Amino acid sequence: MPRELEYSSELVRELTRASSALGHLKGLNVLISDPRVLIGPYIKREALASSRIEGTQASLSDVFESEVSEDEVSDDIKEVQRYLDASKLAFELREKLPMTQRLLLKVHRVLMEGVRGEERQPGKLRTSPVWIGASGDTPSTAPFVPPLPQYLGDLLTDWEKFVNDDGQRLPTVIQAALMHYQFETIHPFLDGNGRIGRLLINLLLRERNELEHPLLYLFHYFETHRAEYYNALQGVREKGDIENWLKFFCRAVSEQADDAVFRPIKMVELIEAYRAQAASARSNLPRLIDIISINPIVTVRSVAKALGITEQGARNILRTDASSEFAWIDRSGTSGRGGRERWVARDFLESMEGPMTYLE
User: Fold this and answer.
1) Which of 129, 171, 309, 326 could form a disulfide bond with 277, CB atoms 3.0-4.6 angstroms apart?
2) 326 has pLDDT over 70
3) Where, in this chain's numbering, is ATP bound (predicted)?
4) Any binding-site annotation on 316?
């Protein structure tokens, strides 16, 4: 990886925008008293986006419903859940370990165990050649053939040095972009490289003190610009076109940082509106708000368990809100094979799932 770069005026412009957007996100503490309350649902949204790039077919509603359903979860949901576990472990380990092979192997093991691809050496570097292309491609026809296994050790050592030492002389956004490209090109695992590589971006931004809370995730941008994402990476490999990749990455940071400011603000506004409407309630209705701020899809049983009350008491709370003038939760069919009543705080769910409109 280059340790020094020449910056065109266009790249400088994109980098400036990205750095400014990161600064606004870092200032989110001023606008929101406790951003930590948003981290759980926000990370679920981004874990889903990262898994969907790899072909996982699930919606955010599916992820939330799996937490209250008593049915066996699908393979797609398991992959999202393992990503959440791996992400949590990565940030915990980073408090004790630098970004090295040791951290990578531990996180990869958690990501891949118990899901599709489990047989593909969780927590171990690959020991066989791989190639990336369409079905039926061979090493001679595939558009990308990662390095042979015998070179992985030296390549990852260079990656570690770039991340923890000399790469830190570069602007943080540039270092993150090059670090991600380098990891994806080394392709050290048989499976899960993309998810690990995208997770590392946020880990590096936290390490460089660009983020206090893990609210910036580029996965959604990469998913919605999937062809451009892969083409930009391949352009560096084939033509050495680093600038195009860096500009793409900067645009991703700019857009997702804006999203990570406006979306949490919208979520907090809704929660505060719910609290104001429930302020005069004598029941457990105010406590229900704490539950839906974590998961906007609930069942009678999940509410009863969370509040420590009977199922009839939980049903009464849900029906009381649904019939009120300011109803913010309503019944929406049933959940699972048991046919349990399913209730959804639709506006709050939409604030996480839907597109955002930004003010210029």
Assistant:
1) 326
2) no
3) 54, 187, 191-198, 229-230
4) no
Give catalytic status of residue 187 as yes or no: yes
Gap between the Cα atoms of 66 and 60, Å rounded: 10
The answer to whether the Cα torsion of 284, 286, 292, 297 is positive or negative is positive
Task: Tell me if domain 30-132+147-261 and domain 264-353 are identical in fold.
Answer: no
308 annotated to bind ligand: no
Share of the chain above pLDDT 70, in %: 86
What are the structural domain ranges in the chain?
30-132+147-261, 264-353
Q: What is the pTM of this model?
A: 0.84
Which fold is adopted by the domain 264-353? Answer: Arc Repressor Mutant, subunit A (1.10.10)
Higher pLDDT, residue 133 or 173: 173
Q: What is the CATH superfamily name and number for domain 30-132+147-261?
A: Fido-like domain (1.10.3290.10)
Selected catalytic residue, list 187, 213, 220, 225: 187
* pLDDT higher than 70, residue 154: yes
* Strand order across the 297-299 sheet: 297-299, 340-344, 330-335
pLDDT at 153 over 90: yes
Is 174 known to sit in a ligand binding site? no
